């Protein structure tokens, strides 16, 4: 009976759902990166704070998971959900505090950050665990 359990696929492995999650992650990630660069460079640059400082504070943290997302690494998709939460908070604040074009940009930031969160969650949930990260069976602990 234990041999049958070892041959079965993991309960939540689904290539279809993982593919949907991957597409959503890429849309959310590159949409958020493009939005931030365009927003603070051309569309509505800040007047009080230098553009370079705002771009460095908002765009550079998004570059850290770039390689892992492009190479479909599950671990990167797992932690990138934490990275998109400050962007969600900034987007909600801008959306609520301003009107016109800037409010639309804030709503877009909320949309892209939620797309990134949902996509990375789907991808990390429905891909199989790499063999080197699997826990040993309980029988190995008995001694």
Structure description:
- By secondary structure, this protein is mostly helical.
- Helix content is about 70%, strand content about 0%.
- Helix 2 (about 15-45) packs antiparallel against helix 7 (about 100-125) and helix 6 (about 85-95) runs antiparallel to helix 7 (about 100-125).
- About 25% of the residues are buried.
- The model has no long low-confidence stretch (mean pLDDT about 90).
Overall structural class, as computed from helix and strand content, comes to: mainly alpha
Helix content: over 70%
Number of strands: 0
Q: What about the largest sheet? A: none
Number of domains: 1
Q: Distance between the terminal alpha carbons, to the nearest Å?
A: 23 Å
Global Rg: 20 Å
Assign an overall shape.
elongated
The number of helices is 7
Give the SSE order as H and E letters: HHHHHHH
Kindly estimate the percentage of residues that lie in beta strands according to DSSP: under 5%
Give start-end ranges of low-pLDDT stretches.
Answer: none
Oligomer: single chain
Give the averaged pLDDT, no decimals. 88
For this entry, give a set of tags.
7 helices, 143 residues, mainly alpha, elongated
Per-chain topology:
Blueprint: H1 2-7, H2 15-43, H3 51-63, H4 66-70, H5 74-83, H6 85-97, H7 101-126
Brief summary:
This protein is an all-alpha fold and 143 residues long. The chain is built from seven helices and no strands.
């Amino acid at each position: 009976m234990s041999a049958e359990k070892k041959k079965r696929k993991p309960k939540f492995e689904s290539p279809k759902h993982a593919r949907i999650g991957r597409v959503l992650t890429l849309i959310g990630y590159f949409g958020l990166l493009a939005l931030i660069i365009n927003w603070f460079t051309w569309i509505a640059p800040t007047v009080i704070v230098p553009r370079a400082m705002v771009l460095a504070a908002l765009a550079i943290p998004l570059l850290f998971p770039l390689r892992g997302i492009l190479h479909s690494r599950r671990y990167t998709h797992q932690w990138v959900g934490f990275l998109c939460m400050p962007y969600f908070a900034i987007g909600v604040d801008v959306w609520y505090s301003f009107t016109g074009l800037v409010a639309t940009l804030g709503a877009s930031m909320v949309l892209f950050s939620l797309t990134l969160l949902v996509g990375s969650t789907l991808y990390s949930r429905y891909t199989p665990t790499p063999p080197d990260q699997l826990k040993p069976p309980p029988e190995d602990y008995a001694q």
